[in-house]
Amino acid sequence: MKKFFTVVVLFLVFLFASCTKFNEVKSSKEFLMTRSISQKVLFDNAHSQTAGNADWTIRGGYSTLADDIKLLGYTVEEWGNDESGSGQIDDDAKITYDVLKNYFAYIIPEPNIPFTKAEQDAIIQYINDGGNVFFISDHEGADRNADGWDAVEIFNGFKKGTHTIDSKNSYTDDFVGRLGFRYEENNVYQAPVTDIRTHSITTNVSQVAVWNGSTHYMISNTINGVVYTSTTSAGPYIIAGTYGKGKFVSCGDSSMFNDGTRGDGTTDKYSGYFEYDNRTFASNVIRWFNQNSSSEGINAPNNLTVSSINTNSAKLMWSDNSQSELGYRIYLSTDNVNFIKTVELGENATSYTLNNLNSNTTYYIKVSVYYGNNEKESSIISFTTLQPFTNKKLYLTEVVDAYDYNYEYIEFYNNTSESINLNGCKLVLDRKRTDGTLYTPIEISLSGILKSKGFLIVARNSSKKNFQNYFGVRLSKNTIFINSNNKMYINKSEQRFVIKDSNGSIIDDNKTSKFLTNVLNNIKVRNDFINYGFEDINIVDEWTDYYDTSAGYLTQEQLNFIQ
After folding, report:
1. Topology, domain 302-384
2. Under a CB-based contact definition with an 8 Å cutoff, are residues 280 and 198 in contact?
3. Per DSSP, what are the bridge partners of residue 450?
4. Can you give the pTM of this predicted structure?
5. Mean pLDDT, the chain, as a whole number?
6. Does the domain made of 394-559 have the CATH classification 3.40.50.1820?
7. What contacts 174, CB < 8 A, 6 or more positions away?
8. What is the tens place of the pLDDT at every residue in 48-74?
9. In the predicted model, is pLDDT for residue 479 greater than 60?
10. pLDDT at residue 68 in the model
11. Domain ranges in the chain?
12. How far is CA 371 from each of CA 198, 200, 250, 328, 336, rounded to the nearest angstrom?
């Protein structure tokens, strides 16, 4: 190998650029580390990346990957100048923190010469301070330069059999173990691999491949396993995690990014980079690196609301304010003190329907966004599920076809001793044709808490203020007034007015499910709206053509039946 000199490399870069029209386009995005640096990606080529039949360089098998990174807006450079062939000598300059700190990301394709302890420390410090590293390994035993070390051992920091891999214990010679994972000493093969978990780096990725590679043992539970093989019970094939202010991704097979070209201009028969969704995955890694870090990129969800509340379910919605979250968690409580995680969702989630809730129960809820072990919570809101309607004591008391059709209205009365939650309920108007068939039902959404002895008035097309002026009444504070905006109207056909909950069950008393006749140009006031012992009474017999309206009040006749 040749010595690495800065002057020589700069000359070669410019010479190469002029020969190949290599455009060094700077990214417009701000680099996420605390210091301001240019958007450059560094490939390692100082640890025997060209040993044996490998050529994991930006001029060889990884040239298309390098080109794709340039298309994302980055300058691509390499550290070292490994040459193909046998008899290689480790004469490249060692990687240092002072070098790495000038780069946005550092890609390490399958090394075959171990990193010194100083190099390991530099890489760990680089990630901790906000850098991004893409570790690419291979299967155990892939010692291409016959120096006694394969990539699995090099990244782990120790030779096979030295320590127990699947142990939470830390070892003094741990390398990537300090980041929270180790490579398992195995050799797996599967094409395609389809067990893909939700993560930014798997966006639009449904299958990848491993052509003899290794898997990972996760020491830290904050690391995300994102791709798993089904041919082994070992750990994940691909992982993603954070450490300090930085990020890392690790893949267990170098063949996944090989485009089949070599630095000497020849080609080989393998070109895994173009297989399955391998290429999309590689670009996703760089994009994810450029999302905000765990400490900067997540913001607490806001605008948390609840809708479609019924007896056992409710729909939650919130705003996604983060750019780099791994997902969302929903927490429920019935005492506003002890919150239990109900569900965990993937990134970009903004809604969720809670099911299997208890009826007539007040729930307190919050939504959190998380990234690794960093989590930020929304404010807490509460809602109360509907109570089951079993006593059927919500009564239709009045149907009025006013002279001015805008003021047509119907009136319901809550004769129970409890409030009734109308949120999620609907007023349904059924009408019969002359042949007895039904028109399409008209539905009007209801809302609010109808208090005991309170009234629900649904007007055709009137505001509450105009309604009160027209009829010369002042509605009580226990009255819910709803303007149907011309959805509800009264005509000469037989009509039926019922209230249904979100499950479609009628919740007012059973008798109002029958049809009324001769409503047009009439005021229909229900007299015996309490079941006075006449189980078989016909609803028409309960109604009287009345001489005046009594909006928001009971008539004297109705009061006479109050029990």
Report:
1. Immunoglobulin-like (2.60.40)
2. no
3. 420
4. 0.50
5. 79
6. no
7. 156, 157, 158, 182
8. 888 888 888 998 899 999 999 999 989
9. yes
10. 94
11. 6-289, 302-384, 394-559
12. 13, 11, 17, 9, 25
